[in-house]
Design brief:
Largest sheet of chain A: 5 strands, parallel
Largest interface: A-B, 30 and 22 residues
Shape of chain A: globular
Helix content of chain B: 25-40%
Structural class of chain A: alpha/beta
Strand content of chain B: 25-35%
Distance between the termini of chain B: 11 Å
Radius of gyration of chain A: 19 Å
Order of helices and strands of chain B: EHEHEEHEEEHE
Number of helices of chain A: 10
Order of helices and strands of chain A: HEHEHEHEHEHEEHEHEHH
Helix content of chain A: 25-40%
Number of strands of chain B: 8
Oligomer: heterodimer
Number of helices of chain B: 4
Strand order of the largest sheet of chain B: 3-2-4-5-6
Strand order of the largest sheet of chain A: 7-6-5-8-9
Structural class of chain B: alpha/beta
Radius of gyration of chain B: 16 Å
Largest sheet of chain B: 5 strands, parallel
Chain lengths: 308, 182
């Protein structure tokens, strides 16, 4: 099997083959979560540290459950309860954790590149669980897995990603991944939320939601970070939702069998109307969460090597 | 390698088929019919054999019996020491194993480690009434105290010989070959 990596830092540096190996492995892991006894002995004796410098429910829980279902010992450290509040630097924290011999460190940090720094410092495998506005590879992998399951393939699909592209690591990782897998990616958002030169990533960008979602097979809505309102990036939530909220009217522009995705947590009525979010014939938001556990199990499985 | 002169075909299509027919009858005899009987094939060779046994048993009894597919990779005892992770297949057991008579099916019984892993996996799915083992080839060299209940052919072999079960479903031909290892 072609998979020989120490770390998972971003989708950008994964090959199509590697993405396929991860997705296929994850598909095999789906079944474990449906068993009565949701545990296999594979990672017995391995230790996984979840080092979260940013708030998270889904991702942290998902990694923890993934580790536990593989019989690994998982430990969660959040910045608010760690020595970080005492002024310890990331590098010192990492060296101390390394001294306790874990096998995998999962890190989320507000600074882009923090996982990459860690990967060069410690011998353990590092998984990026989101670094600033840079990448969120496990989210993109679970998104691709969900799309593949619903649509049978990624190649040739039109995927619209709508919202605050500039600040979204989810968007960036998905753009890398979907483009590699042969999907057509179209973006929409207010001009202040579209990074300049984004077309160089091989995507089309529109300032109108309607222009992007026409004939889309997949509509991926991004969460509006409410704190951005204060930064004058958009005038008000109300105005944003008037132009960029996915609702039962504008969804008709997409293909009739289009699926709706959202990385969560959703702001009901801001970027997605409740009737769309809860419409199980379209919305795959909870499928995404379900796939997340399998994708993370697959990565933990693939990264934890032997004694060599 | 077909041109290897140290290669010997020890079972051909007809012999394999007759062995499976006999095993099907033995399974029915031992279990007094098909009540609570289920088959579980170990990926990948065991699955094809289990499918064939299911067909034979169903045609004898005039009733279908459940068939599950088991991938034992996650239960292997060498998984934490192997550098490269083996690729994972899908496990598919869509019925309860509680109080069932489970016949595990594999192509070759060798060290017994695969069967140990398979039994651990089955017990994670429930509490079978009993687990029996059917194999096409028993080549000896057990490293664990495991034996088969139903054997197609006992094939004395040395450790440096390779035993390969080719099945139509996988390689287009039904044959068991033994050859000098390299």
């Amino acid at each position: 099997m072609k998979f020989d990596r120490k770390d998972i830092l971003g989708i950008k540096d994964l090959s199509v083959d590697e993405i396929n190996v991860i997705l296929e492995t994850a598909e095999s892991f789906l079944e474990i979560s449906t068993r009565e006894i949701k545990k296999v002995p594979t990672l017995r004796g391995k230790t996984i540290i979840n080092l979260f410098f940013e708030a998270s429910t889904r991702t942290r829980t998902s990694f923890e459950i993934a580790g536990k279902r593989l019989s690994a010992d998982t430990i969660n450290i959040s910045a608010s309860t760690s020595s970080v509040v005492k002024g310890e630097t990331l590098i010192d924290t990492a060296r101390n954790l390394e001294a306790m011999n874990p096998d995998v460190i999962v890190i989320r940090h507000s600074a882009a590149g923090a996982p990459h720094l860690l990967a060069t410092l410690v011998k353990q495998s590092i998984i990026n669980a989101g670094d600033g506005a840079h990448e969120h590879p496990t989210q993109a992998l679970l998104d691709m897995m969900t799309i593949k399951e619903k649509k049978g393939t990624l190649t040739g699909l039109k995927v619209a990603i709508v919202g605050d592209i500039a600040h979204s690591r989810v968007a960036r990782s998905n753009i890398y991944g979907l483009a590699k897998m042969g999907a057509q990616v179209v973006l929409a958002g207010p001009a202040t939320m579209l990074p300049r030169g984004i077309e160089q990533m091989g995507v089309q960008a529109f300032t109108k939601l309607e222009d992007a979602i026409v004939d889309a097979d997949v509509v991926m809505m991004l969460r509006i970070q409410l704190e951005r309102e204060k930064q004058n990036i958009f005038p008000s939530l109300r105005e944003y939702s008037q132009h960029y909220c996915l609702n039962s009217r504008n969804i008709k522009l997409a293909r009739p069998d289009a699926i709706v995705m959202h990385p969560g947590p959703i702001n009901r009525g801001v970027e997605i109307s409740p009737d769309i979010a809860d419409d199980l014939s379209r919305s795959v938001i909870l499928d995404q969460v379900n796939k997340g556990v399998a994708v993370r199990m697959a990565l933990l499985y693939l990264l934890t090597g032997g004694n060599e | 390698m077909a041109e290897n002169k140290n290669m010997k075909v020890v079972m051909d299509k007809e012999v394999i088929d007759r062995s499976l027919t006999r095993i099907a009858y033995e399974i029915l005899e031992k279990n007094k019919g098909i009540s609570n009987l289920v088959l579980v094939g170990i990926r990948t060779g065991g699955v094809y054999l289990a499918e064939r046994l299911k067909k034979k048993i169903s045609s004898i009894e005039g009733e279908e019996i459940p068939l599950g597919v088991l991938d034992i990779t996650l239960y292997r005892d060498d998984i934490s020491i192997s550098k490269k992770k083996p690729s994972l297949g899908k496990t598919k057991i869509l019925f309860s194993l509680d109080d069932k008579k489970v016949v595990l099916v594999d192509d070759v019984l060798f060290t017994g480690r695969t069967i140990r892993a398979a039994m651990d996996a089955l017990i994670d799915f429930g509490r079978p009434k009993m687990i029996q083992l059917a194999v096409l080839i028993d080549r000896g060299h057990r490293e664990l105290p495991i034996r088969a209940d139903f054997v197609g052919k006992n094939l004395p072999s040395s450790l440096w010989e390779a035993v390969t079960v080719n099945l139509v479903e996988k390689t287009g031909v039904d044959e068991v070959i033994i050859e000098e290892g390299t």
